[in-house]
Amino acid sequence: MLSQKARYALRALFVLAKSKPESMIGIADIAAQADVPRKFLEQILLELKRRGIVFSERGKFGGYALARPPGKIAFAEVIRVIDGPLALTPCASQTAYRRCDDCVDETTCAIRKVLLEVRDSTANILESHSLADALIPTAPDNPYNSI
Protein backbone atom coordinates (compact mmCIF):
# COMPACT_ATOMS: atom_id res chain seq x y z
CA MET A 1 0.00 0.00 0.00
CA LEU A 2 1.27 3.47 -0.85
CA SER A 3 2.08 5.33 2.35
CA GLN A 4 0.75 8.78 3.20
CA LYS A 5 4.35 9.98 3.08
CA ALA A 6 4.69 8.79 -0.54
CA ARG A 7 1.39 10.49 -1.48
CA TYR A 8 2.67 13.72 0.11
CA ALA A 9 5.94 13.40 -1.81
CA LEU A 10 4.13 12.93 -5.11
CA ARG A 11 1.81 15.87 -4.43
CA ALA A 12 4.78 18.10 -3.60
CA LEU A 13 6.58 16.97 -6.75
CA PHE A 14 3.48 17.74 -8.82
CA VAL A 15 3.58 21.32 -7.48
CA LEU A 16 7.22 21.60 -8.56
CA ALA A 17 6.51 19.93 -11.91
CA LYS A 18 3.76 22.46 -12.70
CA SER A 19 6.05 25.43 -12.02
CA LYS A 20 8.40 27.07 -14.48
CA PRO A 21 11.65 25.06 -14.72
CA GLU A 22 13.85 27.99 -13.69
CA SER A 23 11.72 29.07 -10.72
CA MET A 24 12.34 28.12 -7.11
CA ILE A 25 9.36 27.53 -4.84
CA GLY A 26 9.53 28.08 -1.10
CA ILE A 27 8.64 25.25 1.22
CA ALA A 28 5.67 27.16 2.65
CA ASP A 29 4.19 27.57 -0.83
CA ILE A 30 4.77 23.91 -1.69
CA ALA A 31 3.15 22.83 1.58
CA ALA A 32 0.12 25.05 0.96
CA GLN A 33 -0.36 24.06 -2.67
CA ALA A 34 0.18 20.34 -2.02
CA ASP A 35 -1.82 20.39 1.24
CA VAL A 36 1.05 18.77 3.13
CA PRO A 37 2.11 19.60 6.70
CA ARG A 38 5.22 21.77 6.42
CA LYS A 39 7.25 19.95 9.08
CA PHE A 40 6.63 16.61 7.38
CA LEU A 41 7.36 18.13 3.97
CA GLU A 42 10.81 19.27 5.14
CA GLN A 43 11.77 15.64 5.85
CA ILE A 44 10.36 14.44 2.54
CA LEU A 45 12.14 17.09 0.49
CA LEU A 46 15.41 16.34 2.26
CA GLU A 47 15.12 12.66 1.23
CA LEU A 48 14.25 13.64 -2.34
CA LYS A 49 17.19 16.06 -2.42
CA ARG A 50 19.64 13.39 -1.24
CA ARG A 51 18.50 11.17 -4.11
CA GLY A 52 18.80 13.87 -6.76
CA ILE A 53 15.10 14.31 -7.48
CA VAL A 54 14.94 17.91 -6.25
CA PHE A 55 17.52 20.57 -5.45
CA SER A 56 17.36 23.59 -3.23
CA GLU A 57 18.88 27.03 -2.91
CA ARG A 58 19.03 29.18 0.19
CA GLY A 59 18.32 32.84 0.43
CA LYS A 60 15.65 35.36 -0.38
CA PHE A 61 14.96 33.87 -3.80
CA GLY A 62 15.68 30.29 -2.75
CA GLY A 63 13.43 27.32 -2.47
CA TYR A 64 13.04 23.99 -4.21
CA ALA A 65 12.87 22.87 -7.83
CA LEU A 66 13.01 19.58 -9.70
CA ALA A 67 16.55 18.42 -10.38
CA ARG A 68 15.51 17.08 -13.80
CA PRO A 69 12.51 17.38 -16.12
CA PRO A 70 9.23 15.88 -14.85
CA GLY A 71 9.27 13.38 -17.73
CA LYS A 72 12.51 11.94 -16.33
CA ILE A 73 11.13 11.25 -12.84
CA ALA A 74 9.20 7.98 -12.68
CA PHE A 75 6.65 7.13 -10.02
CA ALA A 76 8.72 4.03 -9.18
CA GLU A 77 11.76 6.13 -8.29
CA VAL A 78 9.81 8.37 -5.94
CA ILE A 79 8.05 5.46 -4.26
CA ARG A 80 11.33 3.57 -3.78
CA VAL A 81 12.94 6.65 -2.21
CA ILE A 82 10.08 7.18 0.21
CA ASP A 83 8.62 3.70 0.85
CA GLY A 84 11.46 1.40 -0.12
CA PRO A 85 11.29 -1.62 -2.44
CA LEU A 86 8.20 -2.23 -4.57
CA ALA A 87 8.19 -5.97 -3.85
CA LEU A 88 5.83 -7.38 -1.24
CA THR A 89 8.46 -9.75 0.17
CA PRO A 90 12.23 -9.40 0.46
CA CYS A 91 12.84 -12.49 -1.70
CA ALA A 92 10.99 -10.83 -4.60
CA SER A 93 12.85 -7.53 -4.37
CA GLN A 94 15.45 -6.47 -6.90
CA THR A 95 16.72 -3.55 -4.84
CA ALA A 96 16.62 -5.10 -1.35
CA TYR A 97 16.75 -8.85 -1.94
CA ARG A 98 16.94 -11.06 1.12
CA ARG A 99 15.93 -14.69 1.51
CA CYS A 100 12.81 -15.05 3.64
CA ASP A 101 13.53 -16.38 7.14
CA ASP A 102 11.05 -19.23 6.89
CA CYS A 103 11.87 -20.26 3.31
CA VAL A 104 12.58 -23.95 2.75
CA ASP A 105 13.42 -23.80 -0.97
CA GLU A 106 13.32 -20.50 -2.83
CA THR A 107 13.39 -22.16 -6.27
CA THR A 108 10.15 -24.08 -5.65
CA CYS A 109 8.35 -21.53 -3.48
CA ALA A 110 4.90 -20.94 -4.97
CA ILE A 111 4.46 -17.68 -3.04
CA ARG A 112 7.70 -16.23 -4.38
CA LYS A 113 6.83 -17.19 -7.96
CA VAL A 114 3.58 -15.21 -7.83
CA LEU A 115 5.10 -12.27 -5.96
CA LEU A 116 7.88 -12.00 -8.55
CA GLU A 117 5.18 -11.56 -11.21
CA VAL A 118 3.42 -8.97 -9.07
CA ARG A 119 6.69 -7.08 -8.54
CA ASP A 120 7.52 -7.16 -12.24
CA SER A 121 4.06 -5.92 -13.26
CA THR A 122 4.01 -3.22 -10.62
CA ALA A 123 7.52 -2.05 -11.47
CA ASN A 124 6.76 -1.97 -15.21
CA ILE A 125 3.72 0.22 -14.67
CA LEU A 126 5.35 2.57 -12.16
CA GLU A 127 8.55 2.87 -14.22
CA SER A 128 6.58 3.76 -17.33
CA HIS A 129 4.66 6.64 -15.72
CA SER A 130 6.42 9.90 -14.95
CA LEU A 131 5.37 13.05 -13.14
CA ALA A 132 4.79 14.64 -16.54
CA ASP A 133 2.45 11.80 -17.57
CA ALA A 134 0.39 12.29 -14.43
CA LEU A 135 -0.04 16.00 -15.11
CA ILE A 136 -1.43 15.59 -18.61
CA PRO A 137 -5.01 16.85 -18.52
CA THR A 138 -7.40 14.04 -19.27
CA ALA A 139 -10.90 13.03 -18.40
CA PRO A 140 -12.24 14.13 -15.00
CA ASP A 141 -11.81 10.56 -13.75
CA ASN A 142 -8.00 10.64 -14.18
CA PRO A 143 -6.79 8.51 -11.23
CA TYR A 144 -3.82 10.83 -10.68
CA ASN A 145 -6.15 13.68 -9.78
CA SER A 146 -6.88 12.16 -6.37
CA ILE A 147 -3.32 11.47 -5.20
What's the topology here?
Elements: H1 4-18, H2 27-34, H3 38-50, E1 54-57, E2 63-66, H4 75-83, H5 110-127, H6 131-134
Antiparallel strand pairs: 1-2
Helix pairs in contact: 1-2, 1-3, 1-4
Main attributes of the structure:
mainly alpha
Q: Biggest sheet, open or closed, and with what strands and sense? A: 2 strands, antiparallel
Shape descriptor reads elongated
Total number of helices: 6
Helical content class? 40-55%
Radius of gyration: 18 Å
Model regions low in confidence, pLDDT < 50 over at least 5 residues: none
Task: Specify the structural class.
Answer: mainly alpha
- Oligomeric state as shown: single chain
Cross-sheet strand order for the largest sheet: 1-2
What gap, in angstroms, lies between the N and C termini?
13 Å
Strand content: 5-15%
Q: N-to-C SSE series? A: HHHEEHHH
- Report the strand count: 2
Chain-averaged pLDDT = 89
